[in-house]
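User: Can you help me understand a structure? I only have the sequence.
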Amino acid sequence: IGVIILVILAGFGVRYCHQQHSAQSTKPRVSQAAKKPSKNKKKAPAKQAKPTDPAAAKYEIKGMRPLNNNTWKHPSMYRAYPDVNAHPGMWIRVSTARQRVYFIDRGHTIYEMYCSTGQDHGTPIGTFHIQQERGENFFNAASGEGANYWTSFKNHGEFLFHSVPVNQNGRYMVKEAEDLGKPPKSHGSVRLAIPDARWIYTYVPYNTKVVI
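Assistant: Let's start by predicting it. Here is the structure, written out as tokens:
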């Protein structure tokens, strides 16, 4: 009897060990390589630094509309345009680096606009003044572009504040207009949103100082 019991127990032990081995063999194996983080991950491209103009940065104020593809259709700020009669000392600062126009009185910005200045430093740098020449529209056959609501600040009709460009049919050139406030795109003049250009044409007085 003792021999029979030993044989039974031995057989049970063999089956138990086999079951344990089978259960372990069904578990998925994770390789050591999979556990280690990959060293070949691509690094995110570094963000390009935005152009700066420290002298003009101090003039930036809150209340600008978001810069997007429809910016050219609306005033640059949510606030109303200033009453120029209440600011007789107002002058204009144009930043070609930040693509902004600031209207300043007594050291404070009273309005700010998105703009697009000349490619390849085509906008003249210096101190100028609003001239007598201004008009509702023009078209330049040589460049194939025109604009609305223009106001001259240099060379009596050569360098202007004006709207985003129009084609020979007077229709706004949308692809050009959508770049307002982004990299310089003009031929030298200062492009503006339609309402902004209209306000300058209508209200900004002759001889107002312009610093670029």
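Now, to help you interpret it: Helices lie at 2-25, 32-35, 54-57, 174-177, 194-203. The beta strands are 91-95, 100-105, 108-116, 127-129, 134-140, 145-154, 159-163, 190-192, 209-211. Let me know which part you'd like to focus on.
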